[in-house]
């Protein structure tokens, strides 16, 4: 590999590379040995394969690769939308789709191929759609919107709550009660504390401005309620789910808990970013208005 | 359009005017009924882009709880809190040394008496269904099954959920109104069927007198004698207590078992810690069985008249 010293030599003020430098760099980059270098002829004796491959085996003091179940929780690199790469998605198992016999043909654009009877999701698309979803979450949070994380599978409870807590959003990690949005007065309003000044009045209910669905396959009711209320939905759509049903699909594996944890963490980090920027914006506006008032008083 | 139709004479001007005005009202109705995700009333005359720019600085009211959209959010928050507490102390090792290990009385070992559903509802001020109460109890049990002694924050959290909290505190100081009298006698009443026995148990050398007569003269059957001696034999103090019993009503078996119950209760006054032993021996429970009444249309309580085919 070329060293920095070598590279510096390649930028002289004349703009031309000197002949000697050219030769040395060529020697470094070229796989073909130049004829000036006399290589020793290969001996005819038996080459021990263990000896030959010794350099490929890592030394024993090096840490073994972390198992998948810890790869997200104890990641050395922070999990933000700016640090996402296909390698990290692969490590979390997000490329593993469902069996080819159960596939949804509408997911064809997102499928890289099939192997061992399952469809493999093209992670290039996953990355792009994940970044788009992060942008949506960031902008909604920047404008002060409520973000609701819905993950109702038994293993998703902790990660949904964590994601919600991180960006000051909301979560549904047990059952989605039908009518949460369409019958909010009865489902949500009955638990609200009545106003002390006006006890007879119906309680005010709230709706989310963005829903992040981590398992849309089991949450048809949540999806249709969101559609009725014109709430955009981000969802992890696997190869057995039609991605056109949600507003912002993320084609990825919805079965792997670590994979879903990664996606939820990334989206909630983006939302937190937006939330903090909004706080800065409001702070700035507040300071400006106080400054202006101060001037007026003088 | 309207002038053309007028010239053709197909519609009168009033009809055309009506249809035109209807279209206008329909359009304005459409603008008014556009709904946005938030429940806030939007100003109706501004175009959409203008609305977006104006509202970015607006601070809307938001629900306070993280679990607002789960419905019963207080219940959900409680479960999350208990879960988080368990996670914090998941690696807790009890701090008892070998010598001082107190396993506790058999009552305390496995059974945690938690408040029942209605009392817990009251205490928490959260409406609870039975399935929800059961889930809370599950979480409480996992917390309580950490190695003893429990960490202080866990104990503090669990205390308001325990049943009989005040009674346990006062019970240990001995507020049960049964005490020995001035002469060291414990008095108790036992009943079985139609018999009732008044028993006085005092520390002595093992005499048993029933209606002023020794036990062997009063009860001829060994079965009845064994019943009377059962409580003292269960605690292996046959020669440490004297029993004076006055019994009336019923027959021999009823009287014997009534005395057994009375003596058992009197012994509890002497020493309350004997309760599990006496309970195992069967001297604590009042046998509720009595003669069943005869019913009309039947020969006896259960026996029916013979059914004839005629």
From TrEMBL, chain A:
Biological processes annotated in GO: translation
CDD domains noted in UniProt: RPS2 (cd01425)
Protein name per its UniProtKB record: Ribosomal protein S2
Annotated spans, Disordered: 30-50
Lineage top rank: taxon: Eukaryota
Molecular function GO labels: structural constituent of ribosome
Bilayer-crossing regions: none
Family indicated by similarity: Belongs to the universal ribosomal protein uS2 family.
Provenance organism: Circinella minor
Pfam family, one: Ribosomal_S2
Automatic annotation (TrEMBL), chain B:
KW Ribonucleoprotein (keyword) present: yes
Domain of life: Eukaryota
Entry keyword set: Ribonucleoprotein, Ribosomal protein
Record-linked SUPFAM superfamilies: Ribosomal protein S5 domain 2-like
GO molecular function term, any single one: structural constituent of ribosome
Gene3D superfamilies linked: 3.30.230.10
Cellular component, GO annotation: mitochondrial small ribosomal subunit
UniProt-listed GO biological process terms: translation
Record has Cytoplasm as a keyword: no
UniProt protein name: Small ribosomal subunit protein uS9m
Highest classification ranks of the organism: Eukaryota, Fungi, Fungi incertae sedis, Mucoromycota, Mucoromycotina
């Amino acid at each position: 590999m070329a060293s920095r010293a070598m590279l510096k030599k390649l930028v002289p003020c004349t703009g031309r590379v000197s002949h000697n430098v050219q030769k040395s760099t060529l020697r470094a980059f070229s796989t073909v040995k130049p004829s000036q270098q006399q290589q020793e002829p290969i001996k005819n004796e038996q080459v021990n394969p263990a000896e030959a491959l010794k350099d490929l085996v890592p030394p024993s003091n090096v840490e073994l690769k972390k198992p998948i179940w810890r790869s997200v929780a104890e990641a050395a690199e922070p999990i933000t939308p700016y640090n996402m790469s296909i390698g990290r998605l692969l490590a979390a198992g997000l490329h593993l789709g469902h069996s080819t016999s159960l596939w949804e043909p509408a997911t064809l654009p997102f499928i890289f191929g099939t192997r061992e009877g399952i469809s493999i999701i093209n992670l290039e698309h996953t990355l792009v759609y994940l970044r788009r979803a992060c942008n949506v979450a960031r902008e909604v949070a920047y404008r002060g919107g409520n973000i609701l994380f819905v993950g109702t599978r038994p293993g998703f409870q902790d990660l949904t709550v964590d994601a919600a807590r991180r960006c000051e959003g909301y979560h549904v990690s047990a059952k989605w009660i039908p009518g949460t949005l369409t019958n909010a007065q009865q489902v949500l309003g009955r638990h609200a504390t009545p106003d002390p000044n006006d006890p007879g009045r119906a309680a005010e209910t709230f709706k989310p401005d963005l829903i992040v669905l981590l398992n849309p396959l089991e949450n048809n009711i949540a999806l249709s309620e969101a559609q009725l209320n014109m709430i955009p939905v981000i969802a992890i759509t696997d190869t057995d789910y039609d991605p056109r049903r949600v507003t912002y699909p993320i084609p990825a594996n919805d079965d792997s808990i670590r994979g879903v944890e990664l996606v939820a963490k990334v989206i909630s980090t983006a939302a937190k970013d937006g939330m903090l920027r909004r706080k800065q914006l409001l702070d700035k506006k507040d300071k400006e208005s106080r400054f202006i008032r101060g001037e007026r008083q003088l | 359009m309207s002038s053309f139709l007028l010239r053709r004479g197909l519609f009168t001007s009033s009809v055309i005017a009506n249809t035109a005005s209807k279209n206008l009202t329909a359009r304005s109705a459409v603008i008014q009924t556009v709904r946005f995700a938030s429940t806030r009333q939007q100003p109706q005359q501004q175009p959409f882009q203008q609305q977006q720019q104006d509202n970015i600085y607006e601070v809307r009211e938001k629900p306070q709880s993280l679990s607002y959209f789960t419905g019963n959010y207080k219940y959900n928050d409680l479960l999350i809190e208990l879960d988080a507490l368990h996670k914090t102390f998941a690696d807790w090792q009890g701090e008892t040394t070998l010598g001082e290990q107190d396993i506790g009385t058999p009552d305390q070992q496995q059974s945690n008496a938690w408040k029942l559903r209605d009392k817990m509802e009251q205490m928490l001020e959260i409406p609870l269904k039975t399935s929800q109460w059961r889930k809370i109890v599950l979480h409480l049990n996992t917390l309580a099954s950490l190695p003893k002694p429990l960490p202080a924050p866990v104990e503090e959290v669990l205390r308001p959920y325990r049943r009989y909290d005040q009674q346990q505190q006062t019970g240990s100081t001995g507020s049960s109104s049964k005490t020995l009298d001035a002469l060291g006698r414990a008095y108790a009443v036992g009943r079985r069927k139609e018999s009732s026995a008044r028993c006085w148990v005092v520390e002595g050398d093992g005499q048993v007198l029933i209606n002023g007569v020794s036990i062997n003269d009063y009860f001829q059957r060994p079965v009845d004698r064994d019943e009377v001696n059962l409580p003292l034999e269960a605690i292996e103090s046959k020669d440490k207590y004297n029993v004076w019993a006055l019994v009336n009503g019923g027959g021999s078996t009823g009287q014997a078992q009534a005395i057994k119950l009375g003596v058992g209760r009197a012994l509890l006054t002497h020493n309350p810690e004997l309760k599990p032993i006496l309970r195992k021996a069967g001297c604590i429970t009042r046998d509720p069985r009595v003669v069943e009444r005869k019913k009309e249309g039947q020969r006896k309580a259960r026996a029916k008249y013979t059914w004839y085919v005629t």
